[in-house]
Amino acid sequence: MSRLDNCLTAIVGDKLPIETARKTFFFLLGIAVMLIVIALPSPSPFYKGEEAIPLTANAKIVMAVLCFAVIQWMTEAIPFPATSLCLIVFLHILGVASFDKLVTLGFGNNVLLFLMGAMGLSAAMTSSGLARRFMLWMLTKVGRRTDRIVLAFIAIGTMTSMWVTDMAVAAMLLPLGVSILESSGCKPLQSNFGRALMIGIVWGALIGGTATPAGCGPNVLAMQYVRDMAHMDVSFAQWMAVGVPGAMIMVPLGWFCLMKLFPPEFREIPTSLESIRAELNALGGLNTKEIRTLVVFLTMVTLWLGGSNLEPYIGFKAPEGFVALLGFVLLFVPGLRVFDDWKVAAKSIDWGGLVLIAGGISAGMMLASTGAARWLAWGMLSGVGELHPVLRVLAVIGMVELLKIFFSSNSVTGAVVMPLIIALAMDIGMNPWILAGPAGIATSMAFIMVTSSPTNVIPYSSGYFRISEFAKSGVVMTIIGILAVTASVAIFGRFANMNIW
C-alpha cells in the first residue's frame, strides 16, 4: 500500500475498501473545508475606484459551498449529479435562499427542456439510422487516400455532432474507423494512421459540439446565464454566427496538426471502401422513421434559426426551449412517431446531466445575487479588463481551457466559470455575451485529457493511441481552438451581437 493509502486507512478505518475509503476521505474533506471557509473572517473588500466590492456573509457561505462542490467534482467522491443536489441542500440549510427559490432557479429553468428535447432529437437520429446513413454516404465520397480519410472522419464528426450528442457521434464513427484500420492491417499502438484516425474521431465530435447550442449542454447553459444575469437575449443563430466559423477553422487546422504529428505510414489504404458502400446500399431508400426524423429535424432547425423573425407568421413566440420540447413531443405523435413508447425515449435522456446542470444553475445564480461572483471576478480577473477586447476574449478562453484539465465535466466547468466571467464583463462595462459566448464554446473543447469527456474514452478504448499521445496532440489542438474561437469572434462577432472593434 502507498503512504496515501495508509493514511486513508488510518483515517476511515481498515474495514472499508480503499476506493470507498478514498471517497469518504474527500467527502469529509469537502465538508471540513466548507466549514472552515464559513468560520474564517471576511476578507477586505476590493475597490473599483472609490467603490468598495465587499464579500458579504451570504456571499462567503456560497463560496464555501462551492469549495465543497469543487472538491467533490475534482475527486469524484460522490457522483456529479449528487454533488449538484448537495449545493441546493447546503445553500438552503445555511440560510442563503429558500428551498423553493433554489429549486425554481434550477429545475424551473427552461434550459432543461431544451436539453431534454435536443437529447431526444439526437436519439431519434441515431435510432432511426438517419445519422449513420449520412456518415456512410459521406465516407463513400472520400476515396482511398489516408489523409483524406482522416479529414473526412473529422469533418463528418463535426457536421453530425452539431445536432447529435458528441458521445453518440464517436460511438457511431468508431466501428467504421476500426473496420478501415483492421482491413488495412493497422496494429494498435503501432500505426500512425490508426492514431490520427482515432484521435480525429474525438476531435470531430468535440469540434461539432461547439458550433450550435444543440451540440453540447454547456452551450445553452452559457446562453441561459447571460439571460438570467445580464438580462440579454441570445438567439440560436447568434451562437452559430461565431460557433460555426470557429469550427470550420478548427477542422482543417486540426487535420493538418494530426498529419504532421502522426504522418500515415502509407499514402493509400490497400483495400477499397467497398464494405462501407455495401453497408450503405443494404440500407436501401429512406425508411419511414428516417423520413419522420428528418421532418422533425428540419422543423426544429427552421424554428431555431428563424427565432423571433418567425413570430409574425406563426402567431406565437418560439424560444429555443419551446422548440426543443415541441420537437420532442412530435417524435411521439401518430404519423410522425419515431419512438415506440416513452421508455425507449427516456433511456436516451441523460437525467443525471440534467440534474447536474439544474444544481449548477441554482448555485450560479446564488453566486451572482449574493455578490460572490463579482467579488471573485474582481479579485481573480480584474487585470483582464485592462486588455484590448480581443485579448480579453483570448485570455478568458485560455483560462477556461486551463480549468478543463482539472474538471472531468464540461457542464461543471461552465457552472463554475460562467457567473464569474459575466460578473467581470458587467463590472468593466463590456457586453457580457462577448466573453460568455467564447467561454461557453471553450468549455466543450476537451482536447488534452482523455478523462475530460466520455467522448474521448470511446475512441481511446480501441487501443490505437496512448494517453500521452492524445495529450501531446491535444495541447496543440487546444492552442488552435483558442486562436480559432478568438478569430471567429473578432471577424464574425458583429453578426452575433459581439462587436469588439
From TrEMBL:
Coiled coil: none annotated. Keywords: Membrane, Transmembrane, Transmembrane helix. One of its GO terms (molecular function) is organic anion transmembrane transporter activity. GO terms for cellular component: plasma membrane. Pfam families: Na_sulph_symp. It comes from Bilophila wadsworthia (strain 3_1_6). It is a multi-pass membrane protein. It is found in: Membrane. This is Divalent anion:Na+ symporter (DASS) family transporter. Its main location: membrane.
